[in-house]
Each structure stands twice: as C-alpha cells, then as structure tokens.
Design a protein that fits this description.
about 20% strand, five-stranded antiparallel β-sheet, 20 helices
Length: about 725
C-alpha cells in the first residue's frame, strides 16, 4: 500500500492507496481522521516503522495528539510545560495557546488503530528517516522569529529514540539543551526550513553516502548529507552540502529501489515544481554497504527501551534502575523513562534512598515529574543533602532544573522552606557560568529572593554578547541578502544574557529600590538597538510592559518615560513617485525582468519605508513582524512568485500569517489571529499592527472557525 497525508487547513486525513485488482486502477481509502489540526503545521508525513509492521506519523507542533490515544512510550501525560517563571507567548501571536507535547511522532497500526506516542518536543518536523540499524531520525524546524533571543533554537537533526523529549515549548518557554528531562540534538544546522529526510540505504552510491542521513532545506535550497559515527548509545554527525541551488526549494526525496538513484522534488508556495534524479558516475564501488555494528551502549539502550512497551511489568524496575547511573545520557534517559512508566508507589522510597550520585539525580527527577504533592517535603529533604561542591557543571545545571520541575509539579515550598532554599542558592549566585546564572536567577525569582535583583542587575551591567555568528555563515554565504542581514545583526548583537536575566527580573517582587528600578528600566534604551528575528523587539517590549505593571503607580510614569526612550534613527522617508496606474503580475514582470542592473539600494530602502512595507515586514533586521521576513527572499522565490505575492497578496496565504473568521453562537463575527483554547478560553489578536493586544472569549461561545480568505496585506500597494 501507498500511504499519504492529506493536509489542509483545519483537517487532516491519512489515505491508503491499494491495487484494485485492475491493472489500470487503484482504490483510495481514508483510514485515519483522528488527528485534529492541519495546514502548514499539521501532520506532514507517514512512513514504515523500524519493526516493518507499523507506521510512523510525523506531525508539527500545531497538531494535537490522536483522539483517544491511550498509549505512549513515555509515561502517559508525563509531558507538561514545567515553566518555573511564567512563559511569554510569541510577541506576534504565533502558536499562542499551543501546549506540550508539541511536534511529535506517533506509531500506528497499518489500519490507523492503536496510536502510540513515540517521540515529542519538536517545533515543526516534516519528516523522519529510519536507518538500516532501525534508528529513527528527524530534521526539526527553528522558530526563526526568535533569532537573537536566549530561547532561540536552530534547525537541527535529532535522534528520535523511544520515549524521547526534545523540549519544544511555545513562545519563550523552550527548554535549553542542557535540561536533563530532554535530549540533545544530533547536530545543529542553523536557520532554514527543513522538509524531507531519508537515508541513502539502497542507493548505488559509494558506501559513505549509502550510510548517510539526507535532509532537505527548503529556504536555502540545500540538500545535506549527514555522515554519522556511532558514539555511545547515539551518534556524532558531520554535515556535507550534497546539492544546492538558488533557488532550489526542496520538499522531499527518496532512494528508488529499482535504479538505486536519488529522486528529490522542489516546489511549494507558488514556486515551479520539478523532480530531479541524482546518480553517481565516479569510480568508487557502489556495492551494498555492510550494516553498521551497533555499539555496546546502543545495544543496552535498545534493551532498556523494550521496557517502554505496554506489556513491561513491574520487573522492569529492577532491569532499568541500575542504569540510572550510566555515564551515557541516552541510556540514563531511557532508564528513567522505564522507571516513570511504573506506579510511583513501587519506587518512590527507592528514589529517596538512592545514594549513587548520577542515579540519585535521575531518580529524584523521576519523582519530581511523577510524584504527588504529599511527597514534596521528603523530596526536598533529600535534595537538601546533595553536596553542591561534589557536582560537575552539568550536574549543577541539572540540580537547579530539578528544583524547578519539583516546584512546578509537586508544589511550592512553604514560606520558611522557600526562604531557606533561596538563602542557599543566593550564596551560589552568581556562579561565573552563563547558563547556570540564568537558571539560578530563574529559581531565585520564583522563590521570592530579594538579593537576586541587585545581583542580576550587576551581572547585566557586565554581561557581554554571545560570541559566534548568528546563523551558519557557511550556509548563508550563498545568499547575499541574508549574509548582509547577519552582518547587521552582528553589529547590533542582542545581548542574550541580559535578555535572559531581564526576562526573569520582570517577575521579581522583592528586592527593588527606586535606584534599582531606574537601572533596570534604563536598560530598555540600549535593548532597543538589538536586532534579531521578527519577534525579538516585541518580546523585549512585552517584558517592559509586564514589568511596568508591577511598579508602584507613583513611579510608573517616570519609569515608562525612561524605558520608552529611543535613539533617533535620522531616517526621513520621501513620498514615492510613479505613474500611479493599475498593475498586474505581467505588467510588473515586463518592467523588471532582465532589467535589474544598476539598482539603487537607498531608493529601495526609502520606498520600503514610504509605502509602509516596513510596518509589517522586516528586512536586514529592520521592520515589523506582522508579515514574512523578506531578508534573503531571492533565495526562496522566483521573480514571478515574488511579484505575485505583492500584486495578489490573497492568492496564497501562509498558515503562519493568515487570519480566521470566528462566528460566535450569538451571531457575532470576529476577524483576527486566534490561538488554541487554553483553560476554556481563546485569545484573538484583532489588530495586525499590535499582535500582542488580544481579546479573550470563551471557547464554548464559538460557533465556528474558518480561514479568512483575505490577506492582512492590502492589495494595490504597488499601484
């Protein structure tokens, strides 16, 4: 059978195409309609699982889990938000209300029954690939609007092991890679739009390419080959740019089992579609490569993963528990998942009595995640006996995260216990480690510490911007527009350490003096020069707004004026000049096609501002975030495609920038961008120029929701 995802706005179906016993015909059957969601961030692909008996359905972060799903490789419903300080939703309204588990991979039977969550915590992964060794890998998307923010995560390849969690949470809530309750990426790539993935298994290519993991990047027209080396229970990877073009909007690929060639497709969003074939013409042998020999650690991990199945009984505890102390992170993770699947009553005392250092942290993490509020006090007592000086840097980060998870799930300690805990960590803050200081600041603010304010402001005054380029320079060098934007961003580099600390301080209640408040709010003047993704300035503005709401009313006016000051740009736009006639795609194409020599950047920049394009679109780090970032647009669209988007903005509307028509049960109609229901309420951004300003209505009051056919971009601007 041939399986496919039929993916539209608001609905998704899985289809099976089978031979109808007629040489010229096939029967199509829709067999799974229990995946709510659809469109750009819905389910994306379906492929055969490693066991050869089931299917893997790969979905983006806007897709809810299958209706009635009662099985998961990790403990059912173990995935939560775990936000020690409140999370801010995206400043432009993206994925507002979308909660864990985010993007995910579900294992289903060939008829669509018995869905089981295999892996979760992805942003918007489009595809997965299975190696000859039966391992699953994905190529996950970034949230490009977050670029420059401390919670930005680049596109990345991931090793999707049983029960794995990769920490995507909406808005500012994404987990750092060092959180022990998630797994690290196989390899960070950088900005892009990941689409199809496959292994070279069966290709008539040299052995290194038969074993390679291939991944498509739609935005930058790059087909990567990742060369994997077994390392412990997982792998290390080195990337190679296998095929590239400008533009080359790659969508998917496969290895043909008949001719051994690679076929890849391009297209999407109005671009010209095509299918290409890649063959090898060199002198190296293309004989089938021998399968890799699994490491002892990989074999052990897979043995532990058998304990993630529904039929694993209480004996799984004794099999998994010894490996909580293993030096390999993937093995420890697999062992903890196996433990968490068992009833807490069977192992809570064992967790509290565990004495091995690494195993103790894993066991206490499991208890924090799966325990009950009545276990908070004994959990805190055992945590308090862990010797800080005996921990390595990763374990110190893990311990602070552990306290955060415990507070989120087991409950906040009573006032005296919270004050004692705050006092303990105040003595350890600052630590001299950038990431540890972020986590200590977060914990201390949550505990109501007073000294954290002065200490954090002192850290902010000396924090330097992160080193290294924003984005993969080697990748972006093929795109002049984007490379120019990166240089601009680096010139006005966001200080991520300052942003991370300021983010936490907005929630601090104690420890403020008028002088400290002035120091904090004055920071927003320098932060106004930071350049980044479409949402960065909005996030900083929302931090300022939320912090002002906590200021005594008598001080609010002064601090508002102090923090809202902006340096003058010195830019004065002059009105555009032209014939002022009705334009069509063909009339514009006739004027500009083949005649783009001698362009004037200054006039183009003026036009971009004078016609108000800059109010909604960013270019080179300057502008708004209501519509798509136009930096590097030449690498994503043909000239005709770009003109069509300008002249006929409603012809193709991306899910990411579309709006909805919401009809209430009383007959009212609202047009705006709406999030998913949270606690029975839906937030709607009605004004595209102020996406952070929303109205809230009860989900039960909504009669219907449907895509609005008109773009937020007004037609006729080019006239």
């Amino acid at each position: 059978s041939l399986y496919a995802v039929v993916n539209e706005k608001g609905r998704t179906g899985l289809w099976r195409l089978r031979d109808s016993n007629n040489d010229d015909a096939y029967d199509a059957e829709e067999f799974l309609l229990s995946l709510p969601g659809g469109g750009e961030h819905g389910p994306h692909s379906v492929l055969v699982a490693p066991d050869g008996k089931n299917l893997l359905v790969v979905s983006g972060n806007h897709t809810r889990l299958p209706v009635g799903m009662a099985r998961a490789r990790a403990a059912m419903n173990s995935w939560q938000e775990d936000q020690l300080v409140p999370r801010m939703w995206d400043a432009n309204g993206h994925a507002r209300g979308i909660l864990a588990p985010g993007g995910h991979i579900v294992l289903v039977a060939p008829d669509g029954t018995n869905p089981e969550l295999w892996s979760a915590g992805y942003r918007n992964t489009f595809d997965a690939a299975v190696s000859s060794a039966g391992e699953i890998f994905t190529y996950d998307s970034d949230m490009e609007w977050d670029m420059g923010a401390p919670w930005y995560r680049p596109t990345r390849f991931c090793h999707a092991t049983s029960g794995s969690e990769f920490g995507w949470r909406s808005g500012s809530g994404k987990w750092p890679v060092y959180y022990p309750d998630s797994l690290p990426a196989l390899l960070d790539i950088g900005p892009g739009s990941p689409t199809g993935t496959t292994f070279g298994t069966g290709a008539k290519f040299p052995a290194k390419y038969q074993r390679a993991l291939f991944g498509c990047d739609w935005t930058f027209g790059t087909l990567y080959a990742l060369h994997l080396t077994p390392a412990g229970a997982s792998y290390t990877a080195v990337k190679e740019e296998f095929v590239s073009g400008r533009p080359l909007p790659l969508t998917d690929m496969l290895i043909h089992p008949g001719d051994g060639a690679m076929y890849f497709a391009v297209g999407g969003r109005g671009t010209q579609s095509a299918v290409y074939r890649v063959t090898y013409t060199g002198s190296e042998s293309t004989a089938p490569a021998a399968p890799e020999t699994p490491t002892a650690e990989a074999t052990l991990r897979r043995e532990i993963e058998t304990l993630h199945r529904e039929d694993a009984g209480p004996g799984a505890l004794d099999q998994a528990w010894p490996h909580l102390d293993h030096p390999d992170r993937f093995i420890r993770f697999a062992a903890r998942v196996a433990v968490e699947r068992q009833p807490v009553a069977l192992w809570s005392a064992r967790a509290l009595a565990e004495g091995r250092p690494r195993a103790r942290l894993e066991a206490l993490l499991a208890l924090a995640r799966m325990g009950k509020p009545e276990q908070l006090q004994p959990w805190l007592e055992v945590m308090g006996h862990i010797a800080w000086e005996s921990l390595d840097p990763a374990q110190k980060l893990g311990l602070v995260r552990l306290y955060g998870v415990g507070i989120c799930r087991l409950g906040r300690p009573e006032a005296a216990a919270a004050a004692a805990l705050a006092s303990t960590f105040e003595a350890r803050y600052p630590s001299g480690d950038r990431h540890l200081d972020r986590e200590l600041c977060r914990l201390l603010v949550a505990l109501g510490s007073a000294p954290v304010v002065e200490k954090s402001l002192r850290l902010m005054s000396t924090a330097t911007a992160d080193e290294g380029e924003l984005g993969d320079v080697e990748l972006l060098s093929r795109n002049d527009g984007y490379a120019g934007a990166i240089r601009r961003l680096n010139t006005h580099r966001p200080n991520q350490q300052q942003i991370a600390l300021a983010y936490c301080l907005q929630y601090a209640e104690a420890g403020w003096t008028p002088a400290l408040r002035e120091q904090f709010f004055a920071w927003f003047q320098s932060a106004s020069a930071f350049q980044g993704g479409n949402s960065l300035k909005g996030f900083i503005g929302n931090i300022r707004k939320a912090a002002l709401e906590r200021v005594p009313e008598a001080e609010r006016g002064l601090l508002d004026a102090l923090s809202s000051a902006r340096p003058a740009t010195g830019i004065v736009y002059t009105p555009p000049q032209g014939p002022g006639r009705e334009q069509t795609v063909d009339s514009v194409l006739k004027v500009v096609e083949g005649k783009l020599d001698g362009r004037d950047l200054a006039r183009g920049r003026n036009l971009f501002g004078a016609t108000a394009c800059i109010a909604c679109h960013a270019f080179a780090g300057e502008g708004g975030g209501v519509g798509p970032d136009l930096t590097g647009v030449a690498g994503r669209y043909t000239l005709r495609d770009l003109i069509e988007n300008i002249v006929e903005p409603s012809r193709i509307i991306s899910d990411q920038y579309g709006s909805e028509k919401i009809t209430t049960r009383e007959g009212g109609v609202l047009i705006g961008r709406a999030g998913a229901p949270v606690d029975g309420r839906v937030q709607i951004a009605m004004n595209p120029f102020a996406p952070a300003d929303t109205i809230t209505i009860q989900a039960a009051d909504i009669q219907s929701r449907e895509p609005h056919p008109l773009s937020l971009m007004p037609p006729g601007l080019i006239n």
